[in-house]
Amino acid sequence: MPAQITAFLHKLSSTFSYVVADSITHRAAVIDPVMDYDAAAGRIGIVSAQAIVDFLRARNLTLDWILETHAHADHVSAAQYLQKELGGTIAIGEGIRQVQAIFARLFNVESQVPSDGSQFGHLFKDGETFHIGDLEARVMTTPGHTSDSLTYVIGDAAFVGDTLFMPDSGTARCDFPGGDAGRLYDSIRKILSLSENTHLYLCHDYPPNGREYANQTTVADQKHANIHVHDGVSREEFIKLRTGRDKTLSVPALLLPAIQINIRAGVSPSPEANNVSYLRIPLNRF
Questions:
Q1: pLDDT in tens, 131-147
Q2: Which residue of 29, 67, 93, 100 lies most exposed, with the fewest beta carbons within 10 A?
Q3: Cα–Cα distance, 167 to 24 (Å, whole number)
Q4: How many separate domains does the chain show?
């Protein structure tokens, strides 16, 4: 039986999270879960994460894995909340160590955030396999957007994180610390070497021209129609296009709050003497 895949859209961050379930064993994984975050109030909420918890409970699904495609800069991870409610192992690519090192220095929290990935339950290597019930999953490291980006391949489905968008939206930016347009091109070609019928499940959609949100495309669609990297676009052409476009983009609204929680596997910074947890905002660094 193929995987049962259910998407959850968090509209405020244009993020798709996924429940991937084995209908025979009733084991499941959640990919890229989102906590609500009110930046003006500095308040974290659970409504979006609770919807996933409720879905799993209503279907008597056992949560084995909470999978991050990378340490996100546009939303706060709900990994800890899901684990607290349902258990499961929080996992990410081993490239998280590089991301932690970069941002722990930026936020001056190197003593609080060891850059060894120990905050996560498992760090995946390229080519590693694991199981969701009887479903076999394979890990492809796909850096470029970030150094820890990876893709989960489960049957004829691939969960690509931020690496690719819908064909009419192109590809992820590469101007964050650790990003690299050349590596992104190589990673995209790696994804597009999968069968043309492979369904690509996206972490984000930013619909142009008023179209409806979409979370799924195929390798064939991307090779034919992706506005940045369709077949025939050379590595040099892509680097020039991607680098030029990145120079026009604003810093994501939640980068500074989100990344310092997400490099901790979704844990907020430890409370200070007054029992309040604080996020840091480095001035004049972006």
A1: 999 999 999 999 999 99
A2: 100
A3: 34
A4: 1
